[in-house]
């Protein structure tokens, strides 16, 4: 069990949880995100997460432009009261480890201990080129990710008053005060995810409190969970101490016309949504989501692509969520 102060919940508590996951780079203001976060909180969802991207994907307009994930979460930390907040996932190429440690700790304080950090190596070349962010080779990005994970844990665990000196991968820290400390003890839960067969499961086994499969089919997710189990066992970690989750795109409606309208607004066809995500009336969506639960996921991140459609969130909260409780 991950210890969280102020009555919050850790990542691994044995209960099936539904979390709302958004992609604001496709086109959303802070107010759009706040409205959905508050709606998610009101409807009893466990968490509101957002992507960490600086460039739109596909045919979306991306207007009025990207919002920074951690600036947004800082605002949400003050503008919501109980829902957990996080990224799926922050790119290790965007922020140096010391800066990220300070940022996450501060936002965790601002939220009274409701923050979770999803962290990955980064993959979207175009956004790096569009905003002058260096994008090294895959091997170097994973080296940076590993060093960043090691340093984040060291910064947050280092006793106050004892300066930190440490080399982790390409990073070197000398006499750091390792401040500030987050509210959660020993630190906010770390989420690592992906479909890679070796390095990703190994990093999750070493550093994560939760492992996430991003948009994998239930059988593929189950296979990836098995790889993570093996990675945990290889270093002597109890696999049951690592939470498991899956991200799933969702389109729910009371009738065929509403389902079709929502699919169009999302930029998907109904047929593809039924194949790759969870699509249909509430009972159908619940039955489909249960397949990821049966594959081993303890939490589901429901990707909601139309941030203006709060009724979609309300329907899922009131008609789907109770069926999976």
Written overview of the protein:
There is one protein chain. The protein is of the alpha/beta class. It has one domain: TIM Barrel, CATH 3.20.20. Helix content is 41%, strand content 19%. The chain contains eleven helices and eleven strands. α2 (69-79) links the parallel β2 and β3. The longest helix is centred in the middle third of the chain and has 20 residues, at 138-157. Residues 1-14 have low confidence and may be disordered.
What is the topology?
Layout: E1 17-22, H1 30-42, E2 47-50, H2 69-79, E3 84-91, H3 97-110, E4 115-120, H4 125-130, H5 138-157, E5 164-168, E6 171-176, E7 190-193, H6 199-207, E8 210-214, H7 218-234, E9 243-252, H8 256-266, H9 270-276, E10 278-280, H10 282-295, E11 299-304, H11 310-320
Parallel strand pairs: 1-2, 1-11, 2-3, 3-4, 4-7, 7-8, 8-9, 9-10, 9-11
Antiparallel strand pairs: 5-6
Q: What's the quaternary structure here?
A: single chain
Major sheet: size, sense and barrel closure? Answer: 8 strands, parallel, barrel
Provide the CATH top-level class: Alpha Beta
Shape: globular
Count of folded domains: 1
Task: Report the structural category.
Answer: alpha/beta
Output mean pLDDT: 95
Please state roughly what percent of the residues sit in beta strands, choosing from under 5%, 5-15%, 15-25%, 25-35%, 35-45% or over 45%: 15-25%
Q: How many E strands?
A: 11
- Cα end-to-end separation: 20 Å
Order of secondary-structure elements = EHEHEHEHHEEEHEHEHHEHEH
Strand arrangement within the widest β-sheet reads 1-2-3-4-7-8-9-11
CATH superfamily: Luciferase-like domain
CATH topology: the name is TIM Barrel
Number of helices: 11
**Helix proportion of residues, in percent?**
40-55%
CATH architecture annotation name: Alpha-Beta Barrel
């Amino acid at each position: 069990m991950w210890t969280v102060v102020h009555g919050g919940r850790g990542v691994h508590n044995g209960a099936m949880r539904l979390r709302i996951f958004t992609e604001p780079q496709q086109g959303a203001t802070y107010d759009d995100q706040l409205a959905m976060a508050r709606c998610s909180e009101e409807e009893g969802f466990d968490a509101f997460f957002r992507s960490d991207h600086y460039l739109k994907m596909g045919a979306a307009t991306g207007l009025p432009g990207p919002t920074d994930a951690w600036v947004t979460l800082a605002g949400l930390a003050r503008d919501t009261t109980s829902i957990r907040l996080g990224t799926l996932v922050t790119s290790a190429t965007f922020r140096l480890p010391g800066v990220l440690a300070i940022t996450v700790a501060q936002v965790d304080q601002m939220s009274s201990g409701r923050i979770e950090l999803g962290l990955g190596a980064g993959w979207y070349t175009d956004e790096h080129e569009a905003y002058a962010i260096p994008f090294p080779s895959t091997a170097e990005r994973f080296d940076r990710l590993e060093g960043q994970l090691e340093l984040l844990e060291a910064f947050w665990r280092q006793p106050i008053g004892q300066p930190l000196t440490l080399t982790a991968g390409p990073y070197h820290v000398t006499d750091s005060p390792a401040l500030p400390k987050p509210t959660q003890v020993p630190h906010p839960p770390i989420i690592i995810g992906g479909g890679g067969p070796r390095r990703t499961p190994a990093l999750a086994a070493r550093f994560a409190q939760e492992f996430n499969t991003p948009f994998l089919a239930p059988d593929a997710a189950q296979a990836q969970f098995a790889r993570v189990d093996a990675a945990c066992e290889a270093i002597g970690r109890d696999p049951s101490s690592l939470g498991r989750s899956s991200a799933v795109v969702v389109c729910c409606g009371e009738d065929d016309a509403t389902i079709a309208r929502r699919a169009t607004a999302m930029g998907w066809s109904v047929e593809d949504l039924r194949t790759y995500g969870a699509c249909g009336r509430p009972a159908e969506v619940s039955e489909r989501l249960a397949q990821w639960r049966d594959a081993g996921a303890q939490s589901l991140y429901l990707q909601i692509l139309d941030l203006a459609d709060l009724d979609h969130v309300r329907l899922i909260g009131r008609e789907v969520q109770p069926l999976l409780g």
